[in-house]
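Exercise: predict the fold of this chain.
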Amino acid sequence: MNINVQYKIYFKENIVSRAILYLFDYTANIHEQRGSRMEMDLTFDDISDMLKEIGYKDVKELFEKILPKSIMYNDTPKIPMVPEKKIRNHILNKLRKDRFFNPEKIYLGGGVWPTYIPSIVSYIISRTEFLTSYTPYQAEISQGTMQALYEYQSIMAELLDMDVVNSSMYDWASAAGEALLMSYRIKKKPMVLVSPHIAANRKKVIETYLWGAGVELDTLSTDEEGNIDIKNMNKKLNDGVSGVYIEYPNSLGYIYENLDEVIQKIHEYGALVILGVDPVTLPIIKPPGELDADIAVGEGQPLGLPMSFGGPLLGIFAVRGDMILIRNMPGRIIGLTRDIEGNRAFAMILQTREQHIRREKATSNICTNEALSAIASAIYLSLLGKDGLLKLSTRLLVNAHKLREKLLELGFEDRYALPFIREFSLKVDKPIKTSQLIQELADRDILFGRVEDDSHVISINEYHDEESFDELMNILGEIL
Protein backbone atom coordinates (compact mmCIF):
# COMPACT_ATOMS: atom_id res chain seq x y z
CA MET A 1 0.00 0.00 0.00
CA ASN A 2 1.47 3.34 -1.04
CA ILE A 3 0.76 6.42 1.05
CA ASN A 4 1.24 9.74 -0.68
CA VAL A 5 -0.05 12.03 2.06
CA GLN A 6 2.18 13.95 4.47
CA TYR A 7 1.21 15.85 7.61
CA LYS A 8 3.13 18.55 9.46
CA ILE A 9 2.81 16.86 12.83
CA TYR A 10 6.03 16.26 14.73
CA PHE A 11 6.70 14.43 17.98
CA LYS A 12 9.37 14.94 20.60
CA GLU A 13 9.62 11.16 21.03
CA ASN A 14 9.58 8.29 18.57
CA ILE A 15 6.05 6.98 19.11
CA VAL A 16 4.06 4.59 16.95
CA SER A 17 0.52 5.74 17.52
CA ARG A 18 -2.41 3.42 17.86
CA ALA A 19 -4.26 5.90 15.70
CA ILE A 20 -1.93 5.24 12.77
CA LEU A 21 -2.45 1.52 13.09
CA TYR A 22 -6.18 2.04 13.32
CA LEU A 23 -6.17 4.13 10.15
CA PHE A 24 -4.21 1.50 8.24
CA ASP A 25 -6.48 -1.31 9.43
CA TYR A 26 -9.54 0.73 8.53
CA THR A 27 -8.15 1.48 5.08
CA ALA A 28 -7.47 -2.19 4.49
CA ASN A 29 -11.08 -3.00 5.38
CA ILE A 30 -12.40 -0.29 3.00
CA HIS A 31 -10.31 -1.61 0.12
CA GLU A 32 -11.32 -5.17 0.88
CA GLN A 33 -15.00 -4.24 0.88
CA ARG A 34 -14.55 -2.41 -2.44
CA GLY A 35 -12.77 -5.45 -3.88
CA SER A 36 -9.73 -3.32 -4.66
CA ARG A 37 -6.06 -4.20 -4.31
CA MET A 38 -4.07 -3.08 -1.26
CA GLU A 39 -1.44 -1.53 -3.56
CA MET A 40 -3.71 1.39 -4.48
CA ASP A 41 -2.86 4.81 -3.06
CA LEU A 42 -4.38 6.17 0.13
CA THR A 43 -6.15 9.38 -0.94
CA PHE A 44 -7.47 12.40 0.92
CA ASP A 45 -10.99 11.09 0.38
CA ASP A 46 -10.11 7.80 2.07
CA ILE A 47 -8.61 9.62 5.05
CA SER A 48 -11.59 11.95 5.33
CA ASP A 49 -13.94 8.96 5.31
CA MET A 50 -11.97 7.25 8.06
CA LEU A 51 -11.77 10.36 10.23
CA LYS A 52 -15.48 11.00 9.79
CA GLU A 53 -16.22 7.44 10.82
CA ILE A 54 -14.35 7.80 14.11
CA GLY A 55 -15.54 11.35 14.80
CA TYR A 56 -12.60 13.65 13.97
CA LYS A 57 -12.25 16.45 11.42
CA ASP A 58 -8.53 15.98 10.73
CA VAL A 59 -5.53 13.91 11.77
CA LYS A 60 -4.12 16.64 13.99
CA GLU A 61 -7.28 16.62 16.10
CA LEU A 62 -7.05 12.82 16.34
CA PHE A 63 -3.45 12.90 17.55
CA GLU A 64 -4.21 15.68 20.05
CA LYS A 65 -6.93 13.51 21.51
CA ILE A 66 -4.83 10.39 22.08
CA LEU A 67 -1.31 11.75 22.65
CA PRO A 68 -0.06 13.97 25.52
CA LYS A 69 0.42 17.60 24.53
CA SER A 70 3.88 17.52 26.10
CA ILE A 71 5.27 15.37 23.27
CA MET A 72 3.80 17.31 20.35
CA TYR A 73 5.12 20.33 18.45
CA ASN A 74 2.73 22.76 16.85
CA ASP A 75 5.31 23.88 14.32
CA THR A 76 8.18 22.31 12.44
CA PRO A 77 11.14 21.78 14.81
CA LYS A 78 13.88 24.33 14.19
CA ILE A 79 16.99 22.23 13.85
CA PRO A 80 20.07 24.37 13.17
CA MET A 81 22.63 23.41 10.54
CA VAL A 82 25.67 22.32 12.56
CA PRO A 83 28.93 20.82 11.25
CA GLU A 84 29.35 17.13 11.96
CA LYS A 85 32.46 17.77 14.06
CA LYS A 86 30.53 20.02 16.46
CA ILE A 87 27.75 17.45 16.78
CA ARG A 88 30.31 14.78 17.58
CA ASN A 89 31.94 16.95 20.24
CA HIS A 90 28.55 17.78 21.72
CA ILE A 91 27.71 14.07 22.04
CA LEU A 92 31.11 13.27 23.55
CA ASN A 93 30.64 16.00 26.17
CA LYS A 94 27.30 14.45 27.09
CA LEU A 95 28.85 10.99 27.31
CA ARG A 96 31.58 12.25 29.67
CA LYS A 97 28.87 12.75 32.28
CA ASP A 98 28.40 8.96 32.46
CA ARG A 99 30.09 7.23 35.37
CA PHE A 100 31.77 3.87 35.07
CA PHE A 101 31.70 1.45 38.00
CA ASN A 102 34.03 -1.54 38.05
CA PRO A 103 32.00 -4.80 38.33
CA GLU A 104 33.70 -5.79 41.60
CA LYS A 105 32.32 -2.57 43.12
CA ILE A 106 28.74 -3.20 42.02
CA TYR A 107 26.37 -4.77 44.54
CA LEU A 108 23.22 -4.27 42.50
CA GLY A 109 21.22 -7.13 40.99
CA GLY A 110 17.59 -8.08 40.91
CA GLY A 111 17.50 -9.11 37.26
CA VAL A 112 20.63 -7.70 35.61
CA TRP A 113 24.07 -8.60 36.97
CA PRO A 114 27.71 -8.00 35.97
CA THR A 115 28.72 -11.25 34.24
CA TYR A 116 32.04 -12.46 32.94
CA ILE A 117 31.51 -13.54 29.33
CA PRO A 118 34.21 -15.56 27.51
CA SER A 119 35.24 -13.80 24.29
CA ILE A 120 34.27 -16.82 22.20
CA VAL A 121 30.58 -16.13 22.93
CA SER A 122 30.73 -12.74 21.19
CA TYR A 123 32.79 -14.22 18.38
CA ILE A 124 30.29 -16.99 17.57
CA ILE A 125 27.14 -14.86 17.73
CA SER A 126 28.85 -12.24 15.55
CA ARG A 127 28.96 -14.68 12.65
CA THR A 128 26.56 -13.72 9.88
CA GLU A 129 24.72 -17.05 10.24
CA PHE A 130 23.50 -15.97 13.68
CA LEU A 131 23.60 -12.17 13.77
CA THR A 132 19.86 -11.44 13.90
CA SER A 133 17.22 -11.50 16.59
CA TYR A 134 14.43 -12.44 14.22
CA THR A 135 12.55 -15.69 13.86
CA PRO A 136 14.03 -18.10 11.26
CA TYR A 137 10.86 -18.23 9.16
CA GLN A 138 12.25 -20.25 6.25
CA ALA A 139 13.06 -23.56 7.86
CA GLU A 140 14.79 -25.01 4.83
CA ILE A 141 17.54 -22.36 4.88
CA SER A 142 17.66 -21.73 8.66
CA GLN A 143 18.70 -25.14 9.94
CA GLY A 144 21.78 -23.85 11.77
CA THR A 145 19.88 -21.15 13.66
CA MET A 146 17.07 -23.56 14.48
CA GLN A 147 19.48 -26.16 15.80
CA ALA A 148 21.15 -23.54 18.02
CA LEU A 149 17.74 -22.52 19.42
CA TYR A 150 16.81 -26.18 19.87
CA GLU A 151 19.99 -26.65 21.92
CA TYR A 152 19.08 -23.58 24.00
CA GLN A 153 15.64 -25.04 24.72
CA SER A 154 17.14 -28.43 25.64
CA ILE A 155 19.76 -26.99 27.99
CA MET A 156 17.27 -24.68 29.66
CA ALA A 157 14.71 -27.48 30.08
CA GLU A 158 17.33 -29.54 31.91
CA LEU A 159 18.35 -26.61 34.12
CA LEU A 160 14.74 -25.78 35.03
CA ASP A 161 13.63 -29.44 35.21
CA MET A 162 10.71 -28.47 32.98
CA ASP A 163 9.45 -30.31 29.90
CA VAL A 164 9.06 -27.58 27.26
CA VAL A 165 10.93 -24.28 26.84
CA ASN A 166 10.20 -21.68 24.17
CA SER A 167 12.76 -19.54 22.36
CA SER A 168 12.23 -16.93 23.68
CA MET A 169 10.74 -13.86 25.45
CA TYR A 170 11.87 -10.25 25.70
CA ASP A 171 12.89 -10.36 29.36
CA TRP A 172 11.87 -11.64 32.80
CA ALA A 173 9.16 -8.99 33.24
CA SER A 174 7.40 -9.71 29.93
CA ALA A 175 7.68 -13.46 30.56
CA ALA A 176 5.98 -13.05 33.94
CA GLY A 177 3.22 -10.93 32.42
CA GLU A 178 2.68 -13.43 29.60
CA ALA A 179 2.59 -16.31 32.09
CA LEU A 180 -0.19 -14.72 34.14
CA LEU A 181 -2.13 -13.91 30.97
CA MET A 182 -1.67 -17.52 29.93
CA SER A 183 -3.10 -18.72 33.25
CA TYR A 184 -6.15 -16.52 32.60
CA ARG A 185 -6.59 -17.92 29.07
CA ILE A 186 -6.56 -21.46 30.44
CA LYS A 187 -8.54 -21.09 33.66
CA LYS A 188 -10.85 -18.23 32.57
CA LYS A 189 -10.97 -16.88 36.13
CA PRO A 190 -10.90 -13.10 36.69
CA MET A 191 -8.11 -12.78 39.30
CA VAL A 192 -4.42 -13.59 39.61
CA LEU A 193 -2.15 -13.28 42.65
CA VAL A 194 1.51 -12.38 43.04
CA SER A 195 3.77 -13.12 45.98
CA PRO A 196 5.09 -10.36 48.21
CA HIS A 197 8.51 -8.91 47.43
CA ILE A 198 8.67 -9.11 43.66
CA ALA A 199 10.79 -6.61 41.75
CA ALA A 200 8.96 -3.30 41.32
CA ASN A 201 9.74 -3.02 37.60
CA ARG A 202 8.41 -6.52 36.93
CA LYS A 203 5.26 -5.81 38.89
CA LYS A 204 4.59 -2.69 36.81
CA VAL A 205 4.95 -4.68 33.59
CA ILE A 206 2.63 -7.38 34.97
CA GLU A 207 0.05 -4.74 35.87
CA THR A 208 0.20 -3.35 32.32
CA TYR A 209 -0.27 -6.78 30.75
CA LEU A 210 -3.23 -7.62 32.98
CA TRP A 211 -4.90 -4.22 32.65
CA GLY A 212 -5.33 -4.71 28.93
CA ALA A 213 -7.03 -8.06 29.47
CA GLY A 214 -9.22 -6.83 32.32
CA VAL A 215 -7.71 -9.26 34.84
CA GLU A 216 -7.69 -8.30 38.52
CA LEU A 217 -4.35 -8.43 40.36
CA ASP A 218 -3.84 -8.88 44.11
CA THR A 219 -0.71 -9.32 46.24
CA LEU A 220 -0.11 -11.87 48.99
CA SER A 221 1.51 -10.91 52.30
CA THR A 222 4.30 -12.27 54.50
CA ASP A 223 4.25 -13.47 58.08
CA GLU A 224 6.66 -12.32 60.80
CA GLU A 225 9.36 -14.73 59.60
CA GLY A 226 9.20 -13.40 56.04
CA ASN A 227 7.44 -16.46 54.59
CA ILE A 228 4.23 -16.28 52.57
CA ASP A 229 1.31 -15.89 54.99
CA ILE A 230 -0.72 -19.08 54.46
CA LYS A 231 -3.82 -17.80 56.29
CA ASN A 232 -3.89 -14.64 54.21
CA MET A 233 -3.36 -16.66 51.04
CA ASN A 234 -6.22 -19.03 51.87
CA LYS A 235 -8.55 -16.03 52.18
CA LYS A 236 -7.53 -14.74 48.75
CA LEU A 237 -7.39 -18.12 47.03
CA ASN A 238 -10.83 -19.01 45.76
CA ASP A 239 -12.54 -20.36 42.69
CA GLY A 240 -11.91 -17.05 40.95
CA VAL A 241 -8.07 -17.25 40.86
CA SER A 242 -6.39 -18.37 37.63
CA GLY A 243 -2.73 -18.29 38.63
CA VAL A 244 -0.23 -17.27 41.29
CA TYR A 245 3.21 -15.81 40.47
CA ILE A 246 5.99 -16.34 43.04
CA GLU A 247 9.59 -15.11 42.76
CA TYR A 248 12.11 -17.72 43.91
CA PRO A 249 14.31 -16.30 45.42
CA ASN A 250 12.24 -13.17 46.05
CA SER A 251 13.33 -9.59 45.43
CA LEU A 252 14.90 -9.43 48.92
CA GLY A 253 17.03 -12.43 47.98
CA TYR A 254 15.26 -14.88 50.29
CA ILE A 255 13.74 -18.30 49.63
CA TYR A 256 10.36 -18.94 51.24
CA GLU A 257 10.69 -21.92 53.60
CA ASN A 258 7.02 -22.85 53.23
CA LEU A 259 7.08 -22.85 49.41
CA ASP A 260 6.10 -26.54 49.13
CA GLU A 261 3.00 -25.96 51.26
CA VAL A 262 2.14 -22.78 49.31
CA ILE A 263 2.32 -24.58 45.95
CA GLN A 264 0.21 -27.46 47.24
CA LYS A 265 -2.49 -25.06 48.46
CA ILE A 266 -2.55 -23.18 45.15
CA HIS A 267 -3.04 -26.43 43.24
CA GLU A 268 -5.82 -27.50 45.62
CA TYR A 269 -7.74 -24.41 44.52
CA GLY A 270 -7.18 -25.28 40.87
CA ALA A 271 -4.89 -22.36 40.04
CA LEU A 272 -1.63 -22.50 38.11
CA VAL A 273 1.72 -21.98 39.87
CA ILE A 274 4.24 -19.69 38.14
CA LEU A 275 7.76 -19.45 39.55
CA GLY A 276 10.14 -16.60 38.62
CA VAL A 277 13.78 -17.69 38.94
CA ASP A 278 17.38 -16.54 38.69
CA PRO A 279 18.80 -19.42 36.61
CA VAL A 280 22.27 -19.12 38.13
CA THR A 281 20.89 -20.27 41.49
CA LEU A 282 19.23 -23.42 40.11
CA PRO A 283 22.21 -25.80 40.41
CA ILE A 284 22.01 -25.57 44.22
CA ILE A 285 18.28 -25.15 44.91
CA LYS A 286 15.27 -27.19 43.84
CA PRO A 287 14.39 -26.33 40.22
CA PRO A 288 10.81 -25.30 39.36
CA GLY A 289 9.95 -28.73 37.93
CA GLU A 290 10.88 -30.49 41.15
CA LEU A 291 8.69 -28.03 43.06
CA ASP A 292 5.74 -28.97 40.81
CA ALA A 293 5.49 -25.57 39.12
CA ASP A 294 3.21 -25.33 36.08
CA ILE A 295 5.15 -22.47 34.46
CA ALA A 296 8.67 -21.17 35.06
CA VAL A 297 9.95 -17.79 33.94
CA GLY A 298 13.16 -15.91 34.55
CA GLU A 299 15.98 -13.77 33.23
CA GLY A 300 18.70 -15.30 31.06
CA GLN A 301 21.00 -12.23 31.16
CA PRO A 302 23.46 -13.72 33.70
CA LEU A 303 23.95 -16.64 31.31
CA GLY A 304 26.35 -14.94 28.96
CA LEU A 305 24.78 -11.55 28.15
CA PRO A 306 26.30 -8.14 28.97
CA MET A 307 24.34 -5.60 31.02
CA SER A 308 24.40 -3.13 28.08
CA PHE A 309 22.51 -0.40 29.96
CA GLY A 310 19.60 -2.79 30.50
CA GLY A 311 19.20 -4.73 27.28
CA PRO A 312 18.72 -6.67 25.17
CA LEU A 313 17.78 -9.27 27.77
CA LEU A 314 16.45 -12.82 27.53
CA GLY A 315 13.09 -13.90 28.90
CA ILE A 316 12.97 -17.56 29.92
CA PHE A 317 9.61 -19.32 29.59
CA ALA A 318 8.96 -23.01 30.32
CA VAL A 319 6.01 -25.27 31.13
CA ARG A 320 5.48 -28.82 32.32
CA GLY A 321 4.42 -31.46 29.80
CA ASP A 322 0.72 -30.72 29.65
CA MET A 323 -0.61 -30.16 26.12
CA ILE A 324 -3.05 -27.49 27.33
CA LEU A 325 -0.12 -25.53 28.74
CA ILE A 326 2.07 -26.16 25.70
CA ARG A 327 -0.56 -25.03 23.20
CA ASN A 328 -1.17 -21.85 25.17
CA MET A 329 2.49 -20.88 25.39
CA PRO A 330 3.50 -17.54 23.87
CA GLY A 331 6.39 -17.29 21.45
CA ARG A 332 7.59 -20.21 19.38
CA ILE A 333 9.09 -23.66 19.90
CA ILE A 334 11.77 -25.26 17.72
CA GLY A 335 11.37 -29.01 17.28
CA LEU A 336 13.40 -31.89 15.89
CA THR A 337 11.87 -33.85 13.00
CA ARG A 338 12.77 -35.78 9.80
CA ASP A 339 12.58 -34.63 6.20
CA ILE A 340 11.02 -36.73 3.41
CA GLU A 341 14.32 -38.55 2.94
CA GLY A 342 14.61 -39.43 6.61
CA ASN A 343 17.32 -36.90 7.46
CA ARG A 344 17.29 -35.06 10.77
CA ALA A 345 15.79 -31.58 10.43
CA PHE A 346 14.54 -28.70 12.57
CA ALA A 347 11.28 -26.75 12.28
CA MET A 348 9.09 -24.34 14.20
CA ILE A 349 6.49 -26.65 15.70
CA LEU A 350 4.56 -23.97 17.60
CA GLN A 351 4.11 -20.45 16.28
CA THR A 352 0.55 -19.38 17.07
CA ARG A 353 1.37 -15.71 16.70
CA GLU A 354 -0.67 -12.86 15.35
CA GLN A 355 0.93 -12.79 11.88
CA HIS A 356 0.00 -16.41 11.25
CA ILE A 357 -3.29 -18.27 11.10
CA ARG A 358 -4.37 -17.51 14.67
CA ARG A 359 -4.67 -13.75 14.10
CA GLU A 360 -6.52 -12.15 17.05
CA LYS A 361 -6.58 -15.49 18.90
CA ALA A 362 -2.79 -15.70 18.92
CA THR A 363 -1.00 -16.49 22.17
CA SER A 364 1.85 -14.11 21.38
CA ASN A 365 2.62 -10.86 19.60
CA ILE A 366 6.38 -11.19 19.98
CA CYS A 367 8.19 -10.59 16.69
CA THR A 368 11.77 -9.79 17.68
CA ASN A 369 12.19 -12.83 19.88
CA GLU A 370 15.69 -12.37 21.35
CA ALA A 371 16.91 -15.37 19.36
CA LEU A 372 20.47 -14.03 19.34
CA SER A 373 20.39 -13.69 23.14
CA ALA A 374 19.12 -17.26 23.45
CA ILE A 375 21.92 -18.55 21.22
CA ALA A 376 24.48 -16.59 23.28
CA SER A 377 23.19 -18.25 26.46
CA ALA A 378 23.34 -21.69 24.83
CA ILE A 379 26.99 -21.07 23.88
CA TYR A 380 27.81 -19.75 27.36
CA LEU A 381 26.20 -22.72 29.12
CA SER A 382 27.91 -25.16 26.77
CA LEU A 383 31.29 -23.62 27.59
CA LEU A 384 30.60 -23.59 31.32
CA GLY A 385 29.12 -27.08 31.47
CA LYS A 386 27.33 -28.62 34.46
CA ASP A 387 30.38 -28.54 36.72
CA GLY A 388 31.26 -24.97 35.76
CA LEU A 389 27.76 -23.68 36.45
CA LEU A 390 27.67 -25.51 39.79
CA LYS A 391 31.04 -24.01 40.77
CA LEU A 392 29.81 -20.53 39.81
CA SER A 393 26.62 -20.89 41.86
CA THR A 394 28.57 -22.24 44.83
CA ARG A 395 31.08 -19.39 44.70
CA LEU A 396 28.25 -16.83 44.66
CA LEU A 397 26.63 -18.58 47.64
CA VAL A 398 29.86 -18.68 49.67
CA ASN A 399 30.76 -15.07 48.92
CA ALA A 400 27.26 -13.83 49.77
CA HIS A 401 27.43 -15.45 53.20
CA LYS A 402 30.97 -14.16 53.77
CA LEU A 403 29.97 -10.57 53.05
CA ARG A 404 26.84 -10.86 55.16
CA GLU A 405 28.92 -11.96 58.17
CA LYS A 406 31.28 -9.02 57.71
CA LEU A 407 28.37 -6.57 57.49
CA LEU A 408 26.72 -8.03 60.59
CA GLU A 409 29.95 -7.47 62.52
CA LEU A 410 29.89 -3.84 61.39
CA GLY A 411 26.43 -3.25 62.89
CA PHE A 412 24.01 -4.26 60.13
CA GLU A 413 21.04 -6.49 60.94
CA ASP A 414 19.32 -9.27 59.00
CA ARG A 415 15.94 -8.43 57.53
CA TYR A 416 14.78 -12.06 57.87
CA ALA A 417 16.42 -15.29 59.02
CA LEU A 418 15.64 -17.05 55.75
CA PRO A 419 17.94 -18.95 53.37
CA PHE A 420 19.49 -17.01 50.49
CA ILE A 421 21.89 -17.64 47.61
CA ARG A 422 23.45 -14.55 45.99
CA GLU A 423 21.28 -11.73 47.33
CA PHE A 424 20.32 -10.80 50.87
CA SER A 425 18.75 -7.87 52.75
CA LEU A 426 20.15 -5.96 55.72
CA LYS A 427 19.11 -3.01 57.84
CA VAL A 428 21.72 -0.64 59.21
CA ASP A 429 21.55 0.03 62.96
CA LYS A 430 23.08 3.48 62.66
CA PRO A 431 21.73 7.06 62.59
CA ILE A 432 22.69 7.39 58.91
CA LYS A 433 19.78 7.01 56.48
CA THR A 434 19.73 4.18 53.95
CA SER A 435 19.60 6.53 50.96
CA GLN A 436 22.38 8.70 52.40
CA LEU A 437 24.65 5.67 52.86
CA ILE A 438 24.09 4.59 49.27
CA GLN A 439 24.91 8.09 48.01
CA GLU A 440 28.12 8.36 50.04
CA LEU A 441 29.30 4.98 48.76
CA ALA A 442 28.40 5.96 45.19
CA ASP A 443 30.55 9.07 45.60
CA ARG A 444 33.41 6.64 46.30
CA ASP A 445 32.65 4.54 43.20
CA ILE A 446 30.76 1.74 44.96
CA LEU A 447 27.13 0.87 44.16
CA PHE A 448 25.92 -0.56 47.46
CA GLY A 449 22.80 -2.45 46.51
CA ARG A 450 19.33 -1.05 46.15
CA VAL A 451 16.74 0.00 48.71
CA GLU A 452 13.56 -1.99 49.28
CA ASP A 453 11.31 -1.59 52.32
CA ASP A 454 14.00 0.52 54.03
CA SER A 455 16.54 -2.30 53.65
CA HIS A 456 19.70 -2.69 51.61
CA VAL A 457 19.35 -5.52 49.10
CA ILE A 458 22.93 -6.65 48.45
CA SER A 459 23.73 -8.71 45.36
CA ILE A 460 26.88 -10.75 44.71
CA ASN A 461 28.36 -11.24 41.26
CA GLU A 462 31.23 -13.39 40.03
CA TYR A 463 33.75 -10.52 40.13
CA HIS A 464 33.51 -10.19 43.92
CA ASP A 465 36.32 -11.58 46.09
CA GLU A 466 37.99 -10.99 49.46
CA GLU A 467 39.85 -7.95 48.13
CA SER A 468 36.67 -6.20 46.98
CA PHE A 469 34.96 -7.05 50.29
CA ASP A 470 37.88 -5.60 52.28
CA GLU A 471 37.73 -2.36 50.30
CA LEU A 472 33.99 -2.10 50.92
CA MET A 473 34.39 -2.75 54.66
CA ASN A 474 37.16 -0.14 55.01
CA ILE A 475 35.03 2.54 53.35
CA LEU A 476 31.94 1.57 55.35
CA GLY A 477 34.01 1.77 58.54
CA GLU A 478 34.99 5.35 57.69
CA ILE A 479 31.40 6.38 56.89
CA LEU A 480 29.69 4.66 59.80
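Check your answer against the key: Residues 329 and 363 are 6 Å apart (CA to CA).
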